[in-house]
Amino acid sequence: MMGETVENVARNIDTYSYTQPLGVCAGITPFNFPAMIPLWMFPLSIACGNTFILKPSEQDPMTPQRLVELFVEAGAPKGVLQLIHGDKTAVDMLLTDPAIKAISFVGSVGVGQYIYKTGTDNLKRVQAFAGAKNHCVIMPDANKQQVINNMVGASVGAAGQRCMAISVAVFVGKAKEWIPELKEALATVRPGLWDDKDAAYGYCH
User: Fold this and answer.
1) What pLDDT was estimated at residue 203?
2) 25, 48, 163, 204: the active-site residue
3) What does pTM read for this prediction?
4) Residue 136: exposed, middle, or buried by beta-carbon count in 10 A (0-12, 13-18, 19+)?
């Protein structure tokens, strides 16, 4: 929230700027990190002087609900943080309401494109993080076993439903020789239901 001052931008002319809150901001968050991603959004927005409306995924609304309850229990002023539940109808309201000045979104590519276009068409600032796809570059001087272990964990952790999941691996030089061993390591893990003790990770629908 710091402004800046520049002296002598021209003869006998100094400039200064103030950074001011926008007003009402909103966040649309995904199912896979129901606490972390809202916590990327509303605390920073509110600390900068804005009010905030959180619209979490309808697939797992209880965690964001509890975050808002804790925020209120901590003594935050009434109405500074608000929560709405719903599907596309609720999102469209946020994207078109003139009182909302900025939108932050994390989720899939198709939804991100829709939110960005609709929000900017309604003269809002839109931040859309969509369809993350991490790449991993494996150099030949890396620790082979550590690479294999970490890549298996990155691929299946959280059933692969996270932006840190490694979906593309680039093996450089002799590191390409490790691919069969990585394939064998991945073959040893399998998905299963929550009560399957031999499952390495859960199903995600």
Assistant:
1) 63
2) 163
3) 0.76
4) middle
